[in-house]
Amino acid sequence: MSNNLPKVAWIGLGIMGSPMSENLIKAGYDVTGFTLEQDKLERLTAAGGKAAGSIAEAVRDADVVITMVPASPQVEAISYGPDGILENARSGALLIDMSSITPQTSVDLAKAAKAKGIRVLDAPVSGGEAGAVEAVLSIMIGGEQADFDEAEPIFEALGKTIVLCGPHGSGQTVKAANQLIVAVNIQACAEAVVFLEKSGVDLKAALDVLNGGLAGSTVLTRKKDNFLNRDFKPGFRIDLHHKDMGIVTDAARNVGAALPVGAVVAQLVASLRAQGDGGLDHSALLRAVERLSGAQI
């Protein structure tokens, strides 16, 4: 396909990366991907992308490199070193990291990339798997205005709410705040669910009317069925939310912000993980409340 759109290398084709890269292909972009799972590379080629055998091969001719991996250590592993992005992407390329990592990791990456002539945006997302599939993600971005302007058409193929939040690391800071709000919200919903059921109320009816009022939220809309059906197939795993609660509590300590409720929910997420539920969706915070309320799970 020959077009004037920038050539994209996509590193990391997980729950989020696969549908997001496919949305870029649908928008007409030439996408070359690399990831560790062979079946995900096959999915990419079936969608019209190209599979690369290594990071170096994927990024060599790319105008834009997009990364979507689980956490800071993975971002560092794919970015640095002789086989990493910075050594193998061309000078002038734009690196957009869409992973959710510590703000400091993003700041350090931007600095290291600048020495190679590579521009960086941190651009974590919110909206989960459904948001990725439907291309309605909220994208919070840190970096330079000119780089943001250049990347905006790409973001528009992936999401709906696209905001430059400030300098490098700002996207990650806003994402950390997002994860704080989401976790506390899910926890409140979970407590309400257990309270309602123990009281003998029709749960579906109760959640419908609650969602129509001030207690309504995107969290409740997206997770209502998870609660009703006890379906905890992961859209966003507890393991990852555990990582994110670590990021937000650590970053808040660094700036001197108190997160009393966030700290409690961080511990509840950690305990759920310790009980073997790390691979479940974060709506499984319901299981922790059920255990605390006497259920044998």
Automatic annotation (TrEMBL):
What EC identifiers does the entry list?
Answer: 1.1.1.60
> Record's family?
Belongs to the HIBADH-related family.
Q: What is this protein called?
A: 2-hydroxy-3-oxopropionate reductase
Natural source organism: Streptomyces lutosisoli
Q: Which keywords does this chain's UniProt record carry?
A: NAD, Oxidoreductase
Would the keyword Kinase turn up in this protein's UniProt record?
Answer: no
The entry lists its GO molecular-function terms as: 2-hydroxy-3-oxopropionate reductase activity
Question: Which part of the chain is the 3-hydroxyisobutyrate dehydrogenase-like NAD-binding domain?
Answer: 169-288
Q: Which residues form the 6-phosphogluconate dehydrogenase NADP-binding domain?
A: 7-166
